[in-house]
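Quality-control log, excerpt.
Job 1 of 2 completed; input and output follow.
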Amino acid sequence: MESSSFISATVLLILVTDPLGNIPLFIGLLRQVDPARRRRIIIREVFLAFAILLFFLFFGSKVLEVMHLTETSLGIAGGVILFLIALKMIFPHPEGAFAHQVKGEPFLVPLAIPFIAGPSAIATVLLLVSREPHRMWEWIGALTVAMLVSAVVLGFAEKIANFLGEQVTMAFERLMGLILTAIAIEMLLAGIETFVRQLGTH
């Protein structure tokens, strides 16, 4: 991930926001909500997640400066987070995602954060803009496309789940987890390589 194109950034953001993997989570949490309101809630939560990720896209570098974090540490941390997320996608927890049920209509947490705009998505946008800040409009475009994909997939979550079936949905989820594992390892190796080079210059 030394240099990302618009397409690769879009694919990466779709993977880390994981709309397909979020289908059973959204269905479970919105089951008690009036069906007429479900789509509105999904659009609202995707918009909130988009706003949060846009904030980190524009002001993430300032946050890093204030916290005295480097691109190298961000790359390694992002790789670790992606790797952990990928492991959960490949090996789902037997208790599922609803150990702590949300009563009533969910707002912001846990749908927008952390299901869509989770640590991996935040780390990814920070990494994109810190490495190539001059391509800001491309990253905004990639994030917009990824959020539109999430909105469409989650808006038709029940229909997609019924059409694909549980087994096929789980297979897609694990395949995406496998791809994300490879991306995470690549990020980790790039971060470690940069760190070793910096040690050699001192």
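Job 2 of 2 completed; input and output follow.
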Amino acid sequence: MSKFQQFTALHVAGTPLVLFNAWDAGSARAVARAGARAIATGSWSVADAHGLADGEGVPVDLVIANAARIVGAVDLPVTIDFEAGYAADAEGLAANVTALAATGAIGCNFEDGLAGGGLRPAADHAARIAVARKAAGADFFINARTDIFLQAKPDTHDAAKAEDAIARAHAYAEAGANGFFVPGLVDLDLLARVCRESPLPVNAMTWPGAPSNAEFAAAGVARISYGPGPYRIAMQAVEDAARAIYIG
């Protein structure tokens, strides 16, 4: 199988693919040595590692060059957090996705959140997914991310938001997406409903205090991402080691 086919086959509801997100070639190698089946980046981690802001604060050329270095460093499928595509217009989006696919990355996250807050209308984001699909070709895993839950406080997550997410999952699937990412959703009942009614395998994000991986799996999740967590762990370890030297 191709790396794209391998990666796609790892998305199994109830037996999720676990992605301990990397940010550069060195961290990707470390995750690969630990037994990962695929490598994924997190945009926040990549941005912070370069002293830049998340939310497309990293120049797209740097994102693509970083992706190429990661692909060259590991013999695993690599998917890149590509935020909202680093372009507002269809022509720029197509050029960016084409360049990303040319690195050898087999997929990307592609979000419907707007940099200033709020969401793109579902039809607008579906149209952008169609542009990305045409640019990347068939063998490229587009993980369509919705920021419905990430932008709202957990105590406001309700059936209406779940219904909006499910409607977006259907629209994004019709446009050519391969997966559906719902970061921020940790209510297991709502998550289970999204998993049941989504036509795409569902990706959840974990962090300290979130449900366990086993609980996510029981809800029907097919992919679990660790987001910025691994980078924060690594940077805390560096700070602690330095503090022991300088402060004692």
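Post-run check on job 2. The chain has a mean pLDDT of 98.
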